[in-house]
Design brief:
alpha/beta; binds phosphoenolpyruvate; eight-stranded parallel β-barrel; single chain; 42% helix; TIM Barrel
Length: 256
């Protein structure tokens, strides 16, 4: 009942011409794939070109990797929600561990972004995840609950179903180490329980929870067949169109 959602996070990769050639190939490769939502989140510089190529297509949605919660003003280097909306951007990645760790984003700032995204009809892809030290200390559930409570403060229950949560264990991002399907399923089930506390069980059942962290064509199918894994947020393996297509297809095989 929850439509799977596979998102590409290109991070700081791909020039405009590289992005254009990727989308050229990718649109052909996924033309016959239905029943899955695909999101591409390129660097800001490629959004105008991809918006021209993909537009408001039902098959492929555009995402942004970041934005600033204020509507406009003296925020050198930042991009607002309305600038993204004008380019048909539907999703925005919020709370990625790289932004938390490298750019010092706090749960309170992430919460401001979630509220601002929702006020501007952008759907958050909210990333949460524990570090290796936190997992080794047996604290992963507490960390996930804390990040969810912090990021979702004051979010009205009716906004919950449109959000996407990405569970991304920090130790699995870009490292080649993937959580086992069982570890990921356990974290996703816990995430859904916390979402139910913050809203209610019926609403929590509608929220899509993606797994992210070294997802590759070869491990996608097993991860995506877990009951609480509703998609994937893919970094490295989304930079090559054939490999990203194989991840998208793994998801469809699973859907039958
Ligand atoms: C990410 O950064 O969101 C991610 C999951 O990266 P990778 O797939 O490269 O681990």
């Amino acid at each position: 009942m929850r439509k799977k959602i596979i998102a590409a996070n290109w991070k700081m990769n791909m020039t405009v011409s590289e992005a254009e050639s990727f989308v050229d190939d990718f649109q052909r490769e996924v033309a016959d794939i239905t029943g899955v939502e695909i999101v591409i989140a390129p660097p800001f510089t490629s959004l105008p070109k991809l918006s021209e190529l993909v537009g408001d297509s039902q098959n492929i949605r555009l995402g942004a990797q970041n934005f600033h919660p204020e509507p406009s003003g003296a925020f050198t280097g930042e991009i607002s929600a309305s600038m993204l909306r004008e380019l048909f951007v539907r999703y925005v990645i919020i709370g990625h561990s790289e932004r938390r760790q490298i750019f010092g984003e706090s749960d309170a700032f992430i919460n401001q972004k979630v509220l601002a995204a929702q006020a501007n009809e952008l759907k958050p892809i909210l990333c949460i995840g524990e570090t290796l030290a936190e997992r080794e200390a047996g604290r992963e559930k507490e960390i996930l609950a804390g990040q969810l409570h912090g990021a979702l403060a004051n979010v009205p229950v009716e906004e919950f179903p449109d959000m996407v949560i990405a569970y991304e264990p920090v130790w699995a991002i870009g490292t080649g180490k993937t959580a086992t399907a069982a570890q990921a399923q356990e974290a996703h089930a816990h995430t859904r329980e916390v979402l139910a506390e913050l809203s209610n069980p019926e609403t929590a059942n509608k929220i899509r929870i993606q797994y992210g962290g070294s997802v590759k064509p070869d491990n996608a199918k097993e991860l995506l067949s877990q009951p609480d894994i509703d998609g994937a947020l893919v970094g490295g393996a989304s930079l090559e169109s054939r490999s990203f297509t194989r991840i998208v297809s793994a998801c469809c095989e699973d859907n039958g």
